[in-house]
Design a protein that fits this description.
This protein is an alpha/beta fold. The chain is 49% helix and 17% strand. It has one domain (22-329): 3-Layer(aba) Sandwich (D-Maltodextrin-Binding Protein, domain 2), CATH 3.40.190.170. The structure holds (2S)-2-hydroxybutanedioic acid.
Length: 333
């Protein structure tokens, strides 16, 4: 009798220990993305980790998986839906597979009047409306993260629309990028981001578009003889989470994570411009490629070639969102 009591006391103690250990297990958030840590998005993800772990006093652990180490472009959305990851920050070119192609409207050429024009759109009713569209898909839109304007490259100079004729240009999936490269006479090809360097190196594609930070950190500039700093379109991300996961969090933790995301977003958006300027300077200093800047006449020629794209875009992403953006941009079609 005595002995039995002793055993159950030990058992009870062990059980209490297990409970304690269980209660102390942090909530793990996996944040997957496709760029390196040394980019605006990469740094933003690490900033979110730092702040989230600080504000929740370690109750949340954020694991950041950069550079397609966990998932490539398309697999990311499936992983979010299945709960295999909790946070992503895909470019707005990558929302068609989850049924929200309207995000691609932000890829339209020459619709933002510089950085201020971009900020106004994503922080205003258009940006808010886009994030709201995610709700019906079981996804919560948390923020937009900036990565600046695109450049475009090939092994021949790209100065006038005719220079694109017949070139295979890698795009990330946006039907809008598909439209504008076709308008220039190029043949757009969708490839995952992690496959671009090799495709350029081996000639699977002739060229690509991206921002200076992505050209630099993925070494695209080493395998492209000519880069045009064209600023023809903008690269931005929507940071998203799985709504079921998000709403299942204890409210106090959710509030702390919200604060961490707000501050991480401010940080990311504040460094994007300088990060890209630094990357462009490093690309230039490498001497491995020739940088070109368009003259006003060349810009006009690109704009003339892009004219049909705005109307065609209505069939790809919807008339309403195209109208909203063109009105904001003051473009009449
Ligand atoms: C791309 O595929 O080119 C971009 O979406 C990569 C990124 O996330 O910046």
């Amino acid at each position: 009798m005595k002995r039995r009591t002793a055993i159950s006391a030990v058992g009870a103690l062990a059980l209490a220990g297990t409970h304690r250990a269980f209660a102390q297990q942090p909530i793990v958030i996996k944040f997957s993305h496709v760029v390196t840590n040394d980019t605006p998005k990469g740094k933003g993800a690490l900033k979110f980790k730092e702040l989230a772990e600080k504000y929740t006093a370690g109750k949340v652990r954020v694991e950041v998986y950069p550079n397609s180490t966990l998932y490539k472009d398309k697999e990311e959305m499936d992983a979010l839906n299945s709960g295999a990851v909790q946070i992503l920050a895909p470019s707005t070119a990558k929302f068609r597979p989850i049924g929200v192609p309207e995000f691609e409207a932000l890829d339209l050429p020459y619709v933002f009047e510089g950085d201020a024009g971009y900020d106004k759109v994503v922080n205003g009713p258009i940006g808010k409306g886009l994030l709201k569209r995610l709700e019906a898909k079981g996804i919560t839109g948390m923020a937009f993260w900036d990565n600046g304007f695109h450049m475009v490259s090939a092994n021949t100079p790209l100065l006038m629309p005719a220079d694109f004729q017949g070139l295979k240009i890698r795009i990330s999936g946006s039907k809008i990028a598909d439209l504008y490269f076709r308008a220039l006479g190029a043949l757009p090809q969708i490839l995952a981001f992690s496959e671009v360097y090799q495709a350029l190196q081996t000639g699977v594609v002739d060229g690509c578009e991206n921002t200076p930070s992505n050209y630099y950190t993925q070494k695209f500039f080493e395998v492209q003889k000519h880069i045009t700093v064209s600023n023809h379109a903008h690269l931005q991300y929507a940071v998203i989470t799985n709504t079921k996961f998000w709403m299942g969090l204890p409210p106090d933790i959710r509030a702390q994570l919200d604060k961490a995301m707000t501050e991480a977003s401010e940080y990311t958006n504040s460094i994007a411009k300088q990060e890209n300027a630094d990357s462009l300077a490093k690309i230039k200093a490498s001497g491995k490629t020739t940088l070109h800047y368009l003259t006003p006449a060349q810009v006009s020629a690109w704009k003339a070639a892009f004219k049909p794209v705005y109307k065609e875009a209505e069939g790809r992403v919807g008339k309403q969102i195209v109208d909203e953006l063109l009105t904001a941009a003051g473009i009449k079609i």
